[in-house]
Write a structure and sequence with these properties.
Two copies of one chain form a homodimer.
Chain A: E1 6-11, H1 16-27, E2 32-39, E3 47-49, E4 55-57, E5 59-60, E6 71-74, H2 78-90, E7 94-97, H3 113-116, E8 126-128, H4 134-145, E9 150-158, H5 166-180, H6 212-225, E10 231-235, E11 245-253, H7 259-267, E12 272-274, H8 286-289, E13 295-302, E14 309-316, H9 320-344
Parallel strand pairs in A: 1-2, 1-6, 2-5, 6-7, 7-8, 9-10, 12-13
Antiparallel strand pairs in A: 3-4, 9-11, 11-14, 13-14
Chain lengths: 345, 345
C-alpha cells in the first residue's frame, strides 16, 4: 500500500473510459489526495457520480488546470492529449495516456504492467497505454514467449463499438432498433452502417493499405515485447457488439510447442483466464466477459496444418484491458516508484 | 440453352435456401418440365409463391415422392438427405445436395462449377455442394493457384445467422429487440446468446477441438483444389449479422507473389468482384453485398511481415454462394452433360 498520496487528474472524464477510470480509481483505492475531473467546455460544470456514490464536478480543461497535479490519467483522444502534454509537463505531473499520440515515441514507455513494467522507470514525463486490441494480445503472447520463442502471429480482430466512444454505442443501439423496424438510419459514427453488419476498417487507411488500427496492433506488440523481428500481421474488423474485443489468433513458434504446456502456462498466468472446455461449450464470448478484469483465452488447439503453430480465441473488456484498467495499473506501478524515491530521500 | 427439359424436385423447399432455390430456378430459366416442391409434414399442403409470382403447393416428402424426377436439388439437412438418398437413386434421379452428408465421400464430386466443374462427370448419382464458407474461399484461391502455388492459408470467419436457418434469423431479430429493451431472452438457436455477441463455435466440436464447421472448410477446400498437401487452418465464428459470410484470410504462396498481379487476376475472375479502394472506403461488407451473386474481395494487401503472403477480406451471400446459387449452377452444368448424352444417342 502506498504511503504517499498523490493529486490526480482524469482528462476526458466524461467518456466511456473516463467514467470507468473514476470508478476503478475509487474501487482499487488508488492513493489520491485530490481528484480532479477534466473535460471539454461542453461537459464542464456537470456533476458526475461514481459507482461508489461520490459526486464530482467536472472542471474545464485548460493550460492552468494541471497546477499542483502529480499524475494525469488521460483518455481524451490524441489531439487533446497532444494539446495539453506541455502544460502537464510544466506542472511537473506524469501523464499516463490512453491515446495513440505518443505510443511509438522512442522516449515514451508503452506499458502493460504484467508484460513490461520495468519500462516504466525510463519515462520522461509520459507513459503510454497501448491500443485496446494490443493489450490482451501482448499479455497472452508474453506468457508464452518466456518459454517458446514466437516466430509469426496472424491476427483477425472482432472489435466492439465502445472502442469508438459513447456516440458509437448509441448509434449501434438506435440503428439496430431502426433496422429491426425496417427503417433507414443516417449513420455517422462509422463510415458504413454497423447494425447487423461488419466494417473491415478501424481508423484511417495508411499508405500501405493497412488501417492505422492494424498498424498500431502490429507496432505496439513489437515494442512491448522488445521484438522488432517478430513477424506479426493483422486485419481489424468492427463488429456489432457493444463492449469487449475478440481476436482470432494463429501463433507460430520457432520450434514445436507442446499444447499441454501452453495451456499449463496460460492457466498460471496472472490476470489471464484459460476458459477452454469445448465439450461443455466453454469459451469466452464478449457478452459474457464484459465488466470482468482478466483477459480470457479459449479455443486453444494445435494448428492442424502446422505442428509449430496453434490457434486461439482471445476476448477482453476493451474499456478495462488496454484502457481504464491498464491505465490505473500503470499508475499503481508508478506510485510504487515514486514512493520508493520519497523513502530514499 | 438446354434442348431438353427435366423434371425437378426441390427437397427442403420451405427453408432459407429452398425458397431461394425456387426463385433462382425460375429467374435463371432452368430447363424444367415439372417442378415439385417437397418438405416435411409440417409444411406439406402449404402454398409457396415465387418472386416471379408463380404459386406451388408444397408436397410431402416420402420414399415415393421422387418417381419420374430427373434432378433433385436438396437443402434439407444431412439426416433428411441421407434418409431419402436411396429413394432418389432408385428413381433414377441425380441428387445435388447442399448438406454435409456426402461431401467427403470419395465417389461424390464436391463442386463449385467455376473451380472444378470437370469433377461433375464422375458422379454416381450424387453431387455435393460445399459448405457456404468454403465456396467463396475456394473460388478466390483457385483463381490465384493457377499462377502462384499456394502453401498455407489461415482463415478466420465471420458467419451470419442465416447459415443456421430461418429460426436462427428470427432469434437474432427477437433477441436483439429484447436486448435493446433490456429484457432477457431464452435462446435456443445457438448455444449462447447471439444478440450483440459473437459465438466462436459453429456446429459441434470434434475430437481435435476443432468444430465440424472448421474441419468442413479445411477438408472441402483441399478436396476441391485437389490439394491434399495444402496447409490450411480455420477458426469459425458466428456473428450477429443476418445474411452473408465474411472471412479474413492470410494466404502464403510458395514464392513471392506480386500484389499487382494478384489484383489483376482477381479483377479478371468470373463471378468474383475485386472491391478494393481503401482511399474511398470501398471494400465489401455483408449488408451491402447481400442479394448479390458474385464473391466480393477487398482489403487486399501484402502481408507486412511476410513477402510471400497477402491478407484479404472475402464476403459473399451465403444463401447464394455455397448454397442455392451454387446448387443451380451445378444443375446447369449437369444439364449440359445430360443434353450432350441425349444428342449422342
Amino acid at each position: 500500500m502506498s504511503q504517499q498520496k498523490y493529486n490526480l487528474a482524469i482528462l476526458g472524464a466524461t467518456g466511456n473510459v473516463g467514467r470507468l477510470l473514476l470508478d476503478l480509481v475509487e474501487q482499487r483505492n488508488f492513493p489520491f489526495a485530490q481528484l480532479k475531473l477534466l473535460a471539454s467546455p461542453n461537459s464542464a460544470g456537470k456533476t458526475i457520480t461514481s459507482s461508489q456514490g461520490n459526486s464530482y464536478t467536472v472542471e474545464l480543461t485548460d493550460e492552468n488546470a494541471f497546477a499542483g497535479i502529480d499524475i494525469v490519467f488521460a483518455s481524451a483522444g490524441a489531439s487533446t492529449t497532444k494539446k495539453y502534454a506541455e502544460s502537464i509537463k510544466k506542472a511537473g505531473a506524469v501523464l499516463i495516456d490512453n491515446s495513440s499520440a505518443f505510443r511509438m515515441d522512442a522516449d515514451v514507455p508503452l506499458v502493460v504492467p504484467q508484460v513490461n513494467k520495468e519500462d516504466i522507470k525510463n519515462h520522461k514525463g509520459i507513459i503510454a497505454n497501448p491500443n485496446c486490441s494490443t493489450a490482451p494480445l501482448v499479455l497472452a503472447l508474453k506468457a508464452l514467449e518466456k518459454q517458446f520463442k514466437i516466430k509469426r502471429v496472424v491476427v483477425s480482430t472482432y472489435q466492439s463499438v465502445s472502442g469508438a466512444g459513447k456516440e458509437a454505442m448509441e448509434e449501434l443501439s438506435i440503428s439496430s432498433a431502426k433496422a429491426l423496424d425496417n427503417k433507414e438510419h443516417d449513420y455517422k459514427a462509422f463510415v458504413k452502417p454497423i447494425a447487423f453488419n461488419l466494417i473491415p476498417q478501424i481508423d484511417v487507411f495508411l499508405e500501405n493499405d493497412y488501417t492505422k488500427e492494424e498498424m498500431k496492433l502490429i507496432n505496439e506488440t513489437k515494442k512491448m515485447l522488445h521484438r522488432d523481428d517478430l513477424e506479426i500481421t493483422c486485419t481489424a474488423v468492427r463488429v456489432p457488439v457493444f463492449i469487449s474485443h475478440s481476436e482470432s489468433v494463429n501463433i507460430e513458434f520457432e520450434k514445436e510447442a507442446d499444447l499441454a504446456v501452453i495451456k499449463e502456462i496460460w492457466s498460471n498466468t496472472d490476470d489471464l483466464i484459460l476458459l477452454d472446455k469445448p465439450e461443455e461449450s466453454l469459451y469466452p464470448t464478449p457478452l459474457e466477459i464484459t465488466g470482468k478484469d482478466p483477459v480470457y483465452v479459449g479455443r486453444v488447439r494445435q494448428d492442424n496444418s502446422n505442428p509449430k503453430a496453434i490457434n486461439c480465441w482471445i476476448v477482453s473488456d476493451n474499456l478495462r484491458i488496454g484502457a481504464a484498467l491498464n491505465t490505473v495499473r500503470i499508475g499503481e506501478e508508478l506510485v510504487k516508484i515514486l514512493d520508493s524515491k520519497t523513502c530514499n530521500i
